[in-house]
Amino acid sequence: MTLSAHAISLEGRLSGVSTALRSGQITAICGPNGAGKSTLLSILAGLLVPDSGNVQLGGDTLLNLAAKARAQRIGYLPQNGEAAWDVAVRNVVALGRMPHGDIADGPIDAALEALDLTALANRPMSQLSGGEKARAFLARVLAGEPDWILADEPLAALDIAHQLALIGHMKREAQSGTGVVIVLHDLSLAMNHADRVLVLDQGRLIADGMPAEALAERHIADVWGVDIQWLDDDGAKALVVR
Amino acid sequence: MSRAIWILLAGLVVAFALSLFAGRVWLDFADTPNAMVILAELRLPRALLAMIVGAGLGAAGAAMQGYLRNPLADPGLFGIAPGAALGAVTSFWFGYAASAWLLPIFALIGAAGAMALLALIAGRTGGIALFTLAGMMIASLAGALMSLAISFAPNAFAMSEIVTWLMGALTDRSWREVYLATPMTLIGIVCFWMARKDLDALILGDAAARSLGMRSGVLQAWLIAGVGLTVGSGVAVAGIIGFVGLIVPHLVRPLTDRRPSSLIIPSALAGALLVLIADSVVRILPTVTELRLGIALSLIGAPFFLWLLLKMRRGYSGGLS
């Protein structure tokens, strides 16, 4: 199934972005600050209405779908997630079932287990570490069993071990057929873990393709204005600033 | 039903029974002359009204704090209570307050006017900040107009009536007020109940809640209707009774799992209990004239609010959220 943007424009933020994303892959959206990454993600999630253009989810126009129907198919994880009230982890994860109108134990337990949260299910959110909170918020999305997971910088504020653990969870979701789209600042993570990379600059789509191609040194020099080199260590690539 | 609901229901039953006996005259059916009349025509409607008004304010406070994701939110923030008060003040100004029905009707018109203005400004897709600012603007406008009405009061008697009424009280209320406030408050609480899932989704913030299918406009409509009916009818029959909506959700939250949906009914019960107890206490106090209920609750509420602020300043988060 595809999630595709057709000539999306939003004044001052995006201009004429078109792309067709495929499920079963991790797509990373990269770009400098203010490039329009989060804006594009919000439009793909149906949370922001573009001035022109439209988003197609499978055969449906996204904005024509009822809020509930859209929410059943697209799980959205905002940046810097924080729970307003000190509720238990299980209650946060159970919110993922809201679009389905149930609190089915099966998907909630499965999401808790997938993210190693079963033992923490009854713990209040305030007693969780940053990494555990990030996992709880992702578990909330998984509990809704969406076809697509759209996450806005889910790895920011996590240490490297937690970053790798979380991206590992997302890879497993992608392998099971879910479409995963993540906004990423860390180009090394995008290069090594994404199946596909979109590079945005000043609201325009500059590159769209395999990581090695989209994050080529010349693109990074053009978009970020930084002269870098990718070092290859047995297939894993590391970014070095020249 | 949760443990909190059972505890509060038990407290309500005991407080309700005691409040029927408590007052300037401690009812003793053997000795007190006209005991049945006092009970049926004074104590019973007053106790029921205290519970109804308190339930509405408590539930509205829980819903407001859930909606604004803020433990310092209060139903007054929407400007509906000041709107209702302005309506009532207008009825005093024109000398209509002597008529039994006109004062509450004016208050309800004031509440409806504030609700309509709020809905109009916030629009169908207005964000939380716009909605709150609109409510605060309506509250300050209504406040300014009330001050204007007081300063241009046609006579000293009207001015004194307005000021006294604004302090809030349940003195000399009858079954008429109970019949007016009960259905409106109950429907208002049902409106909050309808909004409970969306309020839970807001635990995760506005964007995540909308991604879960929350429709901002629909949620705002439930809340405007709920606050309008509960707070509007409460002000119409009792005047301004502050702080209940602020305090009660805090008292109840530790007894629940802290989701806004789990807080609505316990807050309604705790609000009923708090106002019932406060109203019984002001009746018993040996003051020359009865202490106004609104003043008594503010005397409890303001120090509580300060304590809350001090806790926040110390960076304490567990009890607040």
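The mean pLDDT of chain A is 94.
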